[in-house]
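Fold this: Helix-turn-helix transcriptional regulator
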Amino acid sequence: MAGNHLTARAFLAREIRLAREAKGMSRAALGKAVFASESLVTAWEKSRYVPKPDAIDRLEGVLGTRGVLSRLLEDLVSVTVPLEWFGKWVEIEGRATALWSFELAVVPGLLQTEDYARAVLRAANHLADTEEMVIARMNRQRILAKEDAPVLVALMDESVLQRNIGGAAVMHDQLLHLAEVAQRDNVVVQIVPLMATVCSGFLGGFVIANFDGGNDVAYVDNQLSGEVVERAEDVVRLRRMFEIFRADALPQRETIELITRAAEQWKA
C-alpha cells in the first residue's frame, strides 16, 4: 500500500531503532556508547536527522550491523540529499585551486546569504533537515576566506537577478552581498545578459574544480540530485561550455553595476 511506503531516510531510521532494540539498549545507553546525546539518537530514529558517516561507523561498531547501515547511507539515503551534506563535494571543493561555476537560476551556494540559502534549500524539498543544510552551506563559504583560497569565477544568467527567491528583502540583501563579494581579489562574478544568443545553450548549472597537477572534477546539478563528474571527456565538454558562455558575459565592472541596480529594484 502506498501509505506504508518508507522513504530511504525513514528506512535507515527504522533499522537503527530495530538494531538498538535487538541489543536491549536504551537510547541513552546507545548515545553514550557512540558519543551522542539521547536527543540526537531520538532524532536519528525518528528520521529527523541523518547520521553523518562517522556516526554511522560508530553505530555499526556498537550495534554489530556489519555494514548494513553504511550501505543504506551510501546506496539509498545519500542520493536523496545534496552531496555537500555528506561531504563528497565539500572535500573536492576544499582542495581546488580554482572553481568555475555556471548558474542558470540561482546564486551559487558559495555566494549565497543565509536567508537566500534557506529559501533555496526549503523550496528544493530535500529530505535532510533544512537548517542543518543551511549551516553546512554557510560553512562551505569559509574556503573563500582561507589563506590559500581558490579563485572562484561565478558565471550567472541575468535571470538570476530577477527571480524571486525568498521575497524582496531577501533578494535585496543577496544582491548587495553578491556585489560586495565580487570585489574580492579571488572572486570574479560575471553576468550573461538575457539578450545574449549564447543563452540558447543553457540547460542547467554546473561547477568545475581545478587542481594544480591533478585532473579537473565537475559537479552537475539537476532537479533531483547532483552528480560528481570525473570522466575527462565530460569535464572537458563542460569547460568548453563555460568558456563559450563566458565569452558573451559582461565584464566584472559592468556586472557589479548591473547587480547593484537590480538590488535597488528589489528594495522595499
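The beta strands are 98-103, 151-157, 187-192, 206-210, 217-221, 226-229. The chain has a mean pLDDT of 87.
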